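hey m, so remember when u said the tokens were messed up on ur end? i reran from scratch. heres the input so u can diff it against urs
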Amino acid sequence: MKSYRTDPHKVSFDASDPSCSCAHQYAAMIRNIPGAIYRCRVVENVGFVVDFMSDEIETLSGYPASDFLDNQVRSFNSIIVPEDREKVTQALFHGIAERKSFSVAYRIRCRNGEVKWVSERGKAQYRDDGKLLWVDGACFDITEQKMMEAELIKSEKLKGVLETAGAVCHEINQPLAAAVIRLQLLADDIEEDLGKSAPYLDDLKEANKQMEQMRQITLKLTNIHCYRTQEYIQGEKIIDIDQSSSSKACEADMENDLDL
């Protein structure tokens, strides 16, 4: 295992130093942790500056640990997705202020462009006079967990939609179909007795047409297999019945899930 030291006056670790009796135990411990271990300090007007980073960061992000030391090549903050940076900073400083452990989940953009979810946990260390020394922490890849959570949420939403669709179809479809048939028979009778120019015949046919459209909607609800939404009023979203009942749209969703 490699080790990274930036300044002899800073607290850091060197597992390759033969004078360190616990070097092998320390190296094995770091190597067996399924996450990137770090130690950083807070520098005024700069933010968090990394003093130590384990090699596992390369597995996580694609960047070597040496890139992050003293922020020489890049800061760790630079690979955090911009939308998540503020909440990460707030979580760390809250933990420091409260002298408690902190935990925060966020996304990073890896060297190959892939976006991963990370769970970071850590705690600050202080001198006897209360001054902050450094922050020790670890970053773990939770991308698979987040994907499973997203799939569960989608599944629960789809379940609710299907249950609603079933209830709607059961309660509405049969009387609606009967009403359509009765209207059509009535229109046929009026046309046969009074001719095509009979009063209200066109209105009756239009009403029958609209009710048939309603019946088709209830039939689509019974064929919902995926969860698609569309924009509604004032930014609200509603289920897109056409897309959600489309076999092609649902197959596309399945392919996208596999790509993730």
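this time it looks ok to me. The chain has a mean pLDDT of 80. if urs says something different then somethings off w ur setup not the seq
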